[in-house]
From TrEMBL:
Binding residues annotated for substrate, in chain numbering: D32, R56, G77, R133
GO MF entries: ATP binding; magnesium ion binding; shikimate kinase activity
Subcellular location field: Cytoplasm
Kinase keyword on record: yes
Name by which UniProt lists this protein: Shikimate kinase
GO biological process terms on file: amino acid biosynthetic process; aromatic amino acid family biosynthetic process; chorismate biosynthetic process
Quaternary assembly: Monomer.
Residues that bind Mg(2+): T14
Binding residue positions for ATP: G10, A11, G12, K13, T14, T15, R115
Major location (coarse): cytoplasm
Organism: Macrococcus carouselicus
InterPro entries: P-loop_NTPase, Shikimate/glucono_kinase, Shikimate_kinase/TSH1, Shikimate_kinase_CS
Pfam families the UniProt entry points to: SKI
Length: 165
């Protein structure tokens, strides 16, 4: 079963996931990158050509494909938008929620055209989305990791928890 990183856009899932995979000598899979490679187009193009619902279906299928594998997985921030995903991830003991202050997240993601749910969004719109997802992240997380900390500190926290579980 995969070790899964969840959390809002810009929380560091990819960076921390890669570092964690290096430490554990496991393969790292970023669901967004996997979807882009399979589709041969970017997330932004998928959203604009086929809509968010279509992307969510691809994301759900990608999650089901990779969850049983012995990998480190970074999910997209909207993985909790689908009830089925919450259900599946709830059964996975090794789901870590990376959480960072919304002010910092906004600086990192605002205006990022590769992120359709952040580009051209105001602070209050992003904050509303963040608040809506918080309880869902919390519900499925085995542990919340404060990713205001450095990448190394986050990796150490996750490793410590894994070694005690
Ligand atoms: C999304 C987050 C993105 C990506 C897509 C939608 C979201 O992933 O899946 O743009 O709705 O929060 P990151 O969290 O890696 O930016």
């Amino acid at each position: 079963m995969a070790i899964v990183l969840i959390g809002f856009m810009g929380a560091g899932k990819t960076t921390i996931g890669q570092a964690l995979a290096g430490r554990l000598n496991k393969r790292f899979v970023d669901l967004d990158t996997y979807i882009e490679q399979r589709e041969g187009r970017t997330i932004a193009t998928i959203f604009s050509a086929d809509g968010e619902d279509y992307f969510r279906q691809l994301e759900h299928e990608a999650l089901r494909t990779w969850l049983p594998e012995d990998i480190i997985m970074a999910t997209g921030g909207g993985i909790v938008e689908r009830e089925e995903n919450i259900h599946i991830l709830n059964q996975n003991a090794d789901t870590f929620w990376l959480n960072t202050d919304i002010e910092k997240l906004f600086v990192r993601i605002s205006g990022d055209l590769s992120r359709p749910n952040a580009a051209e969004h105001t602070f209050s719109q992003i904050k509303e989305l963040y608040n809506k997802r918080l309880s869902r992240y919390n519900e499925i997380a085995f542990m919340e990791v404060d990713s205001n900390k450095t990448v190394e500190e986050c990796v150490e926290l996750i490793l410590t928890h894994l070694s005690h579980s």
